[in-house]
Amino acid sequence: MKTIKTLFILLTVSIFTISCSSDDDKDNTPKFETENPLAVYYTQTGFSTVTNFINAGDYEFGLVFTPTVKGNLKAITLKLPAVNPTLRVTIWDYASKAVLRSETLNVATADVQVTKEISVLGLEKDKKYMITMNSNDWYKKNKADLTNVTYPIVAGNITFNEYRWIGGTAQTFPTNVSANYNAGDLSFEFQQTE
């Protein structure tokens, strides 16, 4: 009888300990939704006219952006009007022009979005970054009247500052700025962390 009583006490203590430690182990940090800002960017700019460019010359091009909150870049999204098994995407520190990340995406099917999860890249609040791709294929999106948009463009927790480009296949920081179109569709998945 004493053995059963001892076992019962041990079992009760074990259950209580497991229950308490489970409560202590719960992550109380807020969970934020992952966001891809590209659709909102296109809506805000009015870039609704689309022209496909295939084998149209090599360029390094993309968008300068600033997170309005601290967060993580978790994936790269891309859609092209042609197949490209080795498309290079670069994420830059805008101020220093340093390459923070270089990824290769396999666009196996034209006109189908590719998403590549990457090792998390922490992004600081109010710091400028740029995401570019190097390609000779892209969608050119602009307003029907070809007028400029006024940057910045706010898309959720991401503010787009400008669109940049430069000719060639080298991984070179783009120096040309254009406000009347965007060549894409290149974007990313961002998740606020605090």
Write up this protein.
- The protein is an alpha+beta fold and about 190 residues long.
- It has one domain: Jelly Rolls.
- It is about 15% helix and about 45% strand.
- The strands form three sheets. Strands 3, 5, 6, 8, 10, 11 and 12 form a seven-stranded antiparallel β-sheet that branches. A four-stranded antiparallel β-sheet has the order 1-14-4-7, with no helix packed on it.
- Strand 5 and strand 6 form a beta hairpin.
- It is globular and about 45 Å long.
- It starts with a helix and ends with a strand.
Which helices and strands appear, and what pairs or packs with what?
Elements lengths: L1 H24 L8 E2 L2 H8 L3 E5 L5 E9 L3 E8 L5 E10 L5 E9 L6 E10 L5 E7 L2 E5 L10 E3 L2 E10 L8 E3 L3 E3 L1 E7 L2
Antiparallel strand pairs: 1-14, 2-9, 3-8, 3-11, 4-7, 4-14, 5-6, 5-8, 9-13, 10-11, 11-12
